[in-house]
Amino acid sequence: MSAHNPQRRRSPAVSLALTGSIAVVAAVTGCAQHHVAVAPIKVASAYVMQSNGANAVAAYLVIANSGSSDRLLSVRSSAGGQVYIVGPNAHDPSAPSALSDLAIAGHGLTRLDPSGYHFEIVHSGRLHQGTDITLTLAFAHAGTMRVPAQVNNPATNNGGYFGP
Question: What is the pTM of this model?
């Protein structure tokens, strides 16, 4: 008599284990439905204006928010120094002032440019035209994101880059 019997039936426990294994494989290999979260905040056109001996440089960018309103709480620079969020002064619009945070409108664009809100990087390391630094932005809801910002020199036509 042979030790192998093809007519032998599997036990219910083995059948259940096989069914469970097939379900796990289907889920892992993509047969299950996937939900991919899309970050509501995107940052573009980030650049820094190179300074000639000044202890502060300005940085600009565009923030696109496809979600609900948020707040930019802080900014850090890979070039060192302290980064301030700067905006118009309510009492004297010609004299900008440091802000504790910046409101980011929901479902819209927030432009940081020379005529309005922007960043001031104070006491940074030496910045060279054409190189990139990294700005790390911390939002109240969207979390932290790192953004490359090109260093441009206004004395040489900004290296051909005109900003956001």
Answer: 0.72
